[in-house]
Amino acid sequence: MSIIHNELGIDESKCQNCGSTDSFFDPESHHWMCRVCGCCWMFDRDDPDYDEPDDELSLLDTDGVWKPLRELK
Ligand SMILES: [Zn+2]
Which SUPFAM superfamilies match (predicted)? Predict the structure, then answer.
C-alpha cells in the first residue's frame, strides 16, 4: 500500500505500479485497487488521521509555549 499526496490534476484511478487506469475505489477502506496488478494505493487526504500540515515547524519552548522554529534560531 502506498500513500500518495493528493495533488491538483492527479489521476487518482491511475495505478502507480503498472500505469493502468482499470482500478476501483473501495469506499470502506478508502483505498484504490488496481484490477491488473492488484496494487493498492490511497491518498493522504482520504486518511482519517490526516491533518492539515502546518506551514512551519513548531517546537515546545522551555516555558511551555509553542514557537515557530525560525524564532528559536
Ligand atoms: Zn497496476
Answer: Zinc beta-ribbon
Ligand 1 centroid to 39 CA: how many Å? 5
24 Cα–ligand 1 center, Å: 11
Residue ranges making up the domain that contains 15: 2-72
Given a contact cutoff of 8 angstroms between Cβ atoms, the answer to whether 13 and 54 are in contact is no
Contacts of 46 (CB under 8 A, 6+ apart): 6, 30, 31
| Count of domains observed in the chain | 1
Tally of residues, the chain: 73
> Measured between alpha carbons, how far is 70 from 72 in angstroms, rounded to an integer?
5
Q: Over 90: is that where the pLDDT of 59 sits?
A: no
